[in-house]
Amino acid sequence: MAEKFHFQPTSLTKLRKHYDVIVIGSGAAGMTAAIQAHELGLKPVILEKMDKLGGNTNRASSGMNAAETNVQLKHHVVDSFQEFYDETLKGGGGQNNTELLKYFSEHAALAIDWLADHDIQLDEITITGGMSKMRTHRPHSLAAIGGFLVTELLRQVQKAHIPLFAGLKVTELTTDEEGKVTGVRATTGKQSGPLTADAVILAAGGFGANQDMLTKYRPDLKGMKTTNQPGATGDGIKLAQSLGAKLVDMDQVQVHPTVQQDTPHAYLIGEAVRGEGAILVNKHGDRFVNELDTRKNVTAAIDELNENGAYLIFDQGIRDRAKAVEFYDSIGLVHTGQSLDDLASQLGFDAETLKQTVSDWNTAVADQNDSAFGRTTGMDRDISTAPFFAIHIAPAVHYTMGGIAINHKTEVLNEDGQAIKGLYAAGEIVGGLHGNNRIGGNSIAETVIFGRQAGEQVFNYINEK
Questions:
Q1: Parallel/antiparallel/unpaired status of strands 124-126 and 169-175
Q2: Catalytic residue check, 59
Q3: What is the total count of domains within the chain?
């Protein structure tokens, strides 16, 4: 058993006045950008306003999408950049920024390799909604991708001696008379002051935990619960906006269909549970949707039930392939039945209906033909190995597709489409890549792909100066 890794943020007494590059945010995009910049010989710093490190990356559960990887070939999956591009474009309603999408689909495999080079192995694969191939990479322990990635990237940050300050909030981006970014102003709440840098990378996440901002752009979502960590309040978007950055797709907010919210805290039940074979049923025990349709469509189907959510149904075989269930069970979110009769009785379902639903599904899996709802993926195993499990879920605010406009070099763009000199952005803070619906597994991919690109492009920018 590996010893538990504990990361200690850098003491504020060690804060210097100048760094080559200031990275705002300690999620996967920020840490990847800082590591890449460091390996190119720059001296970066990571500033995180929260005490807890890792941002929304901690909440990610399914995996990291990529096509044409060696990992896929080892699992006998032959994929192509073009299919990955096409399915992401289709999933996003054709509204994706195609410049970003092209770069994304063609650099995901390299990002998997880059992680492997840093001993961060994503050598298992699964599938998420809206995809036809298994291209969602995850660790062979089947652990949730987010916590795994945060821990492993922090390990790299520590190894490289990259300073990472927690509880330090950036309140302003500073510029010279030509409008070139020269650094930030930051505060601990008690002390504040300027820090200078040759470039700034915004990796501060989206605004899924900011009720006012959500209500401004999507009044229909007012009061809906969120899966986001409390720091996802759109601060970075506002910082960029203050310098004239263009915002795109701000009304495109993804609601995740499967979130357990009967407790004070909302817990996202990752798509991998459905990707490994779980089905969704209504309160009568009937299926009502292709569970691996896009998130937008599955959410709409659950909403149309008007039953305050639905239930995920799965068995021990599926549970063994979706390790996150152990955590869900440990905090009391999982109903367990020794038989389908037992499970139906706990949930108040008609037992015969539930048994018939599961029997029909098992036949669909055996025949590889879901004539009822046309599901074609996540059909590798049926629901036949006791005990049987159920989790009550309902849709919740999950991801903000909108944000700052960038080009494929991660340069932040102003309203005229011109790059704001010295300002870069990566991760959920960026808008445009996902169109009107993000495919599961694409957000983690985005953080590493564009985090690396930001680190590389900052290196170019500083060396051209």
A1: unpaired
A2: no
A3: 2
Q: Give the DSSP H/E element, type plus range, for residue 31.
A: helix 28-39
Among residues 370, 397, 424, the one where a domain terminates is 397
pLDDT, tens digit (0-9, with 9 covering 90-100), for 1-49:
345 789 999 999 999 999 999 999 999 999 999 999 999 999 999 999 9
Q: Residue 71: enclosing H or E segment and its boundaries?
A: helix 70-74
User: Residue 147 has which token pair?
Assistant: 């916590």
Q: How deeply is 191 buried, as exposed, middle or buried, from its count of CB atoms within 10 A (0-12, 13-18, 19+)?
A: exposed
Of 218, 274, 287, 295, the active-site residue reads 295
Is residue 407 in some structural domain?
yes
Same domain, 175 and 39: yes
Question: What per-residue confidence (pLDDT) applies to 61?
Answer: 86
Q: Answer with the one of 340, 364, 397 that is the final residue of a domain.
A: 397
Amino acid code (one letter) for 151: T
Which DSSP symbol is given to 409? T
Write the DSSP string, 165-202. Answer: EES-EEEEEEE-TT--EEEEEEE-SS-EEEEEEEEEEE
Q: Which domain holds residue 393?
A: 257-397
90-101 per-position pLDDT tens digit:
999 999 999 999
Three-state SS string over 296-330 comes to HHHHHHHHHHCCCCEEEEEEHHHHCCCCHHHHHHH
CATH of the domain at 308: 3.90.700.10
Residues 34, 173: one domain? yes
